[in-house]
Amino acid sequence: MSKTIEIKVPDIGDFENVDVIDVIVKEGDKVAENDPLITLETDKAAMDVPAPQAGTIRSMKISGGDKVSQGDVVLTLEVADEEQEAPAGEENEKPKQTEKAPEAAKEESKPEPKQADEYDGKVDQECDVLVLGSGPGGYTAAFRAADLGQKVVLVERYDSLGGVCLNVGCIPSKALLHVAKVIEETHFFAEHGVKFGEPKIETGALREWKNSVVGKLTGGLVGLAKRRKVSVVHGTGQFVSPHHVEVDRNDGKTVVRFNKAIIAAGSEAAMLPNLPDDKRIMTSTGALELEELPERMLVIGGGIIGLEMATVYDALGVKISVVEMTGELMPGADRAIVKPLEKRIRKRYENILLNTKVSKVEATKQGIKVSFEGKDAPKPQVYGRVLVAVGRHPNGGRVGADKAGVKVDERGFIPTDKQQRTNVGHIFAIGDITKAPLLAHKATHEGKVAAEVAAGEKSAFDARVIPSVAYTDPEIAWVGMTEAEAKDQGIDLGIGEFPWAANGRSLAMGRDDGLTRIYFDNKNGRIIGAGIAGTGAGDLISELALAIEMGADAADVALTIHPHPTTSETVAMAAEAYEGTLTDLYAPKKR
Ligand code: NAD
Fold first, then answer.
1. How far is the CA of 310 from the centre of ligand 1 (A)?
2. Peptide bond preceding 378: is omega within 30 degrees of 0, i.e. cis?
3. Among this protein's residues, is 564 annotated catalytic?
């Protein structure tokens, strides 16, 4: 049985006669619950009106360009009769950007797993929420759950909290990348009237400084855990049943019984097969130790980690070669913004080998001898150190998930729904272990969602975009669709571009190699993606992530007054370039 309901314009605040800027569906379309139907735009924001339940569009009552007010009928939707009819304009009250957790009601509806193990041994500790892993996702989840009144146990295999990101990833690498930037700036100004002489690098002192930065943050986490009464258990945790985790400490075992669990056990560096066991062959963890500065170093993998560590070692005076098996550096990033980086490092690095594979690696007394395979492969070379940065593997296979009945896919990821629930209703997963992108800021957001849902709140992960940043020199940042993705999807693409060579602040910093690009859907003028190359690009990209979340168009960004002189003006000017209102360059409207 089915019935037809009217979908009305929800409460949109104090606005009347707002523009319908996009009609996403048409008669006959099938929609799922929460699928966007139309997009409205007020002076303040754009918002989607979502489907209150799944169904088929029967008739459209409005079209693009119409003006509507609260209560106006937008369309009729045929829905299954056994579903309770959503009172049009009530259930439908909130626009998508504030809507939360459609699945919250399903909280315990997922069955206990059939193939899980029973556990009837001794229990040392009990809690409401157990969090496995204390990286950015895990500690955020633990702290949020505690703030919501849950009794929380946080399990961490290493001595310090913070996971890969704080201890051997994002933070120590950024400390060294800052040093690289300082060195580069002194070199640049040596040619412009300020000479410091060649830097003398004391790796020991530098390592200590980097470690002190890490120590401040990880120590801070211990304090934050204590204040929230989060019980931290150090040791390797494994599920032994759907409600028990056994923690293997150095001095014995602790079994924790939990009502809910959040798996935040992250990922680990992938290694190439058949590599000799030699400490001169490193992952990023070893490279951050700065044990020695070789004369020549090979970076295997031209992705984010490889190119960030190459930036550090290059600034410290090491001759860098990069070997990448695909035809481009940083595959997946927007090509136009990788170009300024590639141009700079092609001049500085000893070699950049694309479409090239490593066929053999041998440890010799003189160094690590590497043979290459590919059309332009050089003859075998000997390097003082080799960094392997060919991706990361999720740790799904290492947490005893089968004992809890939690599904792990063939690659080691633990799939979840939008509320971060695994196939087992009371067990959640967040961060690198769930799916790409493997980024700390995705993990922290997922951690909050999981903690809130575990504590009974109606939350869901509904971010439209997740920005990416490579802290190379120049920095590369992108968000939303790349130019290639938009073209692949057949979007009528508009591009607003502003070169940093025309930005006063960039020139004053001695860097004119940056580029800001914004991508628009010409159909409705909305921003769908952006890419920035240049100093501090990672800080600038947030504005464009917000623009996409808010459904902004070029005028929203261009008419927001950006302070002068800043590199943030390049964002406004890229929007002006698309609008055709740019005066800082002679760039007639190209739409
Ligand atoms: P990646 O996937 O970004 O790059 C790995 C690169 O290695 C790819 O370009 C791939 O084509 C290449 N490759 C794979 N096998 C190869 C081989 N045999 N020979 C030559 N090249 C090979 O992985 P990564 O740089 O190791 O980073 C791992 C993860 O960590 C990524 O998901 C990344 O997003 C994340 N990360 C993010 C940041 C950041 O946000 N700044 C920093 C570090 C790491």
1. 13
2. no
3. yes
